[in-house]
C-alpha cells in the first residue's frame, strides 16, 4: 500500500488468479458479475473473513481513489 496513513477500515486485499476463480461473484463496485476464470481481487476485513467481497480490479481502484483532499 502506498498511502500509509489513515486507513479507516482494516481490509486485506488479495489477488485471485484466474485459475482460482471458480465461481461467479457480484462486484459491489459495479453490481456486475465477475465471471469464473477471470482474475480479480478479494477484500477481506481483518477479523471478519466471512464479510469478504470480490471486486473487479478497476472497480477496487476507483473505490480507493475516492479520497478527500484531491
Ligand atoms: Zn466491478
List the helices and strands and how they pair.
Blueprint: E1 11-16, E2 25-26, E3 33-34, E4 40-45, E5 53-55, H1 57-65
Antiparallel strand pairs: 1-4, 2-3, 4-5
Count of individual beta strands: 5
- Class of secondary structure makeup: alpha+beta
Average pLDDT rating: 87
Task: Show unreliable segments.
Answer: none
The kinds of small molecule bound in this structure are: zinc ion
User: How many strands, what sense, and barrel or not for the largest sheet?
Assistant: 3 strands, antiparallel
What does this structure look like?
With 70 residues, the protein is of the alpha+beta class. The chain has one helix and five strands; from the N terminus they run E-E-E-E-E-H. The radius of gyration is 13 Å and the shape is globular. The site of zinc ion (ZN) has 6 residues, from loops.
Amino acid at each position: 500500500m502506498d498511502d500509509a496513513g489513515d486507513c479507516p477500515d482494516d481490509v486485506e486485499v488479495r489477488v485471485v488468479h484466474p485459475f482460482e476463480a471458480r465461481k461467479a461473484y457480484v462486484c459491489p463496485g459495479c453490481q456486475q458479475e465477475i465471471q469464473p476464470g477471470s482474475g480479480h481481487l478479494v477484500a477481506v476485513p481483518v477479523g471478519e473473513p466471512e464479510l469478504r467481497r470480490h471486486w473487479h480490479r478497476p472497480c477496487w481502484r476507483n473505490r480507493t481513489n475516492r479520497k478527500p483532499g484531491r
